[in-house]
Amino acid sequence: MAELSAELKEKVAISEQPTVEQQQSPAGENGATPASTSSKNKNKKKKKSSGAAADKPETEEKDAENAPVKEGEDDDEEDDDDDENAAGATKTATKKKKKNKKKKKTAQTEPPTVPVSKIFGNKIYPEGEICQYNEENLWRTTNEEKRALERQTFDQYNDVRRAAEVHRQVRQYAKRTIKPGMSMIEIVEMIENGTRNLVEANGFESGIGFPTGCSLNHCAAHYTPNAGDKTVLQYEDVCKIDFGVHVGGRIIDSAFTLTFDPVYDNLLAGVKDATNTGIREAGIDVRLCDIGAAIQEVMESYEVEIEGKTYQVKPIRNLNGHSIDPYKIHGGKSVPIVKGGDQTKMEEGEYFAIETFGSTGRGFVHEDMECSHYARVYDAPHVPLRLPRAKTLLNTINREFGTLPFCRRYLDRTGEQKYIIALRNLVEAGIVDEYPPLVDTRGSFTAQYEHTIVLKPTCKEVLSRGDDY
Ligand SMILES: [Co+2]
């Protein structure tokens, strides 16, 4: 879920200059994925993407015979294996077989309904991508004190890894299932039902982290359908799927862009490369402004040709990544995606959503369209509410969502009805914040990629990394 720059939040006079006509591509029946190479457009790319960070397939489809062996943390297991190896090959084979049988995993269904806690019977969830710190922090890798600190925090990491595994399984199902012709409501409900089932949604213990964004085309962020929205996904749409999963308030915030027309391939490639650049640059004592500068340089090295017009991919300069605190999606630090940001540093133990947005428009968003996203203000002042309806609505929000963002559809599920005026009262009283859709110029196209990382004492972990992105 994107963070809007505070200093740019005031409404600015926007000249609504259409930059490109809506794509006129023939509605094709082929659901070509963005992975297919686009030969028809000369997608120039000045800079070579290293892509190194994206390549590790640490989240393979779970083989039923493969116990979820963890590296490093699961010391007992490692030791056992060593003993076996010492004991000789034959013995090792028999013992291993037995062991695997005991730990045989339950397979996931299609659509996904099996909680990941049933798939990982030992309740140890897979690590994300592990990245070593660079030079000045390399000492951390082997430092005993830092290693001990990390072991003490294992349960917290294991919780958020469970959320990450849910995110991977749900999004991979969504990617192979979402097709043009589906309504936006069908799409978000598919993702939300999958999330609730796989994370065993249960009050504040575990559940959805924030509303499922499915922003289209020039809308970059914070659109999810409200009840009655008839919007249907089109072949030529550029759809940002941004959804959250939490366990114990530890939120995974991760997003990707879904397209069917290969004409957008280089827009997506540029944004993916930019996000991976931000992830690569992130580290303890790294200045946030330096991350923004690196992201901008990579993003702007891409060009995309749409309808005969070439666009340099622009970062949307008033959208940011952000730190994440427990039950608090926007934790207080912003990760810019252009140069010139502030010099605050990242610190040990912090969680960050590294997200970048690229656009063929102005590279600047403003609020537009009907609002769907809301969240109680984290440290809201106590305001006496005169209207009983606003009071009961606030009780519902406190009971169901606490400080986690929610949308109108989630309020509908709680049985709340005719709450629009009461909701507006809460916004005006400063108790609830609204997050309206954020759009660039009409006719432009925007893309997004996002991962959640944690700066552990000895290494950086890209929690939501999968073999898809
Ligand atoms: Co976010």
Q: Helix count?
A: 11
Q: What is the element string, with H for helices and E for strands?
A: EHHHEHHHEEEEHHEEEEEEEEHEHHEEEE
The poorly predicted ranges are 10-101
User: What do the pLDDT scores average to?
Assistant: 85
Molecules bound to protein: cobalt (II) ion
Binding site for substrate: 222, 330
Enzyme class: hydrolase
Function: Cotranslationally removes the N-terminal methionine from nascent proteins. The N-terminal methionine is often cleaved when the second residue in the primary sequence is small and uncharged (Met-Ala-, Cys, Gly, Pro, Ser, Thr, or Val).
Domain Peptidase M24: 160-363
Describe the structure.
- The protein has 469 residues and is α+β, with helices and mostly antiparallel strands.
- It has helices at 75-87, 89-102, 116-119, 144-152, 154-177, 184-199, 265-281, 288-299, 388-400, 408-413, 420-428, and strands at residues 3-4, 129-131, 206-216, 219-221, 239-247, 250-258, 303-306, 309-312, 314-315, 319-324, 334-335, 351-359, 366-367, 373-376, 406-407, 432-435, 438-439, 446-455, 460-462.
- Strands 1, 2, 9, 10, 11, 12, 18 and 19 form an 8-stranded antiparallel sheet that branches. It has a 3-stranded antiparallel sheet with strand order 3-5-6, with helices on one face.
- 45% of the residues are buried.
- Mean pLDDT is 85; it is low at 10-101.
- Cobalt (II) ion (CO) is lined by residues 1-2, 253, 322, 353, 355, 450.
